[in-house]
């Protein structure tokens, strides 16, 4: 549905912080499914942990937020510019169910629960091989910067 070139036009993130490789499906105003391929080359694996590389949970949450941003932009029919920033406003109920290691592929499912007063509320789940690795409720907002 959306390849890396289209994602780069929507998200301001770049290596090493772009955490969405492809959008598999997108239903305007409802849901998105995206993926991230996790490789041993990720810079965080050098220190987390050298003897047993594990993807930090906060980066799984960030990957969900990036997928949520793509859904929000599509829902609003906007392409953000250099004056637009998409921020986390809150995270509730974050749970980590299994470690994510090099070679895993994250499948991220995000649904839009509601939009009100510029605040978006999403439910997100990260799966690896069909098993839940992470889930959370995310609140995000867009702001214009000077």
From TrEMBL:
Species per Swiss-Prot/TrEMBL record: Rhodoferax saidenbachensis
Name listed for the protein in its UniProt record: 3-hydroxyacyl-[acyl-carrier-protein] dehydratase FabZ
Keyword Lyase carried by entry: yes
Q: What does this protein do?
A: Involved in unsaturated fatty acids biosynthesis. Catalyzes the dehydration of short chain beta-hydroxyacyl-ACPs and long chain saturated and unsaturated beta-hydroxyacyl-ACPs.
Active-site residues?
A: 48
Which biological process terms from the Gene Ontology are attached to this UniProt entry?
A: fatty acid biosynthetic process; lipid A biosynthetic process
The chemistry this enzyme catalyses reads: a (3R)-hydroxyacyl-[ACP] = a (2E)-enoyl-[ACP] + H2O
Q: Where in the cell is it found?
A: Cytoplasm
User: What does the record give under GO molecular function?
Assistant: (3R)-hydroxyacyl-[acyl-carrier-protein] dehydratase activity
Question: What's the chief localization of this chain?
Answer: cytoplasm
Q: Which family does it belong to?
A: Belongs to the thioester dehydratase family. FabZ subfamily.
The EC number of this protein is: 4.2.1.59
The protein's UniProt keywords, in alphabetical order, are: Cytoplasm, Lipid A biosynthesis, Lipid biosynthesis, Lipid metabolism, Lyase
- What InterPro entries would the database entry show? FabA_FabZ, FabZ, HotDog_dom_sf
Q: Does the keyword Cell division apply?
A: no
| GO CC list | cytoplasm; membrane
| Top-level enzyme category | lyase
Q: Lineage in the entry? A: Bacteria, Pseudomonadati, Pseudomonadota, Betaproteobacteria, Burkholderiales
């Amino acid at each position: 549905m959306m390849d890396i070139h289209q994602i780069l036009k929507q998200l301001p993130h770049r290596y090493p912080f772009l955490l969405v490789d492809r959008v598999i499906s997108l239903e305007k105003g409802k849901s998105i499914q995206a993926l991230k391929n996790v490789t041993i080359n990720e810079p965080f694996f050098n220190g987390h942990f050298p003897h047993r590389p594990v993807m930090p949970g906060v980066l799984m949450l960030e990957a969900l937020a990036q997928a949520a941003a793509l859904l929000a932009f599509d829902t609003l029919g906007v392409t953000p510019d250099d004056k637009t920033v998409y921020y986390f406003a809150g995270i509730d109920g974050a749970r980590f169910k299994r470690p994510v290691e090099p070679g895993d592929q994250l499948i991220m499912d995000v649904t839009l629960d509601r939009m009100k007063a510029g605040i978006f509320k999403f439910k997100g789940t990260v799966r690896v091989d069909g098993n839940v690795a992470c889930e959370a409720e995310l609140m995000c907002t867009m702001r214009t910067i000077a």
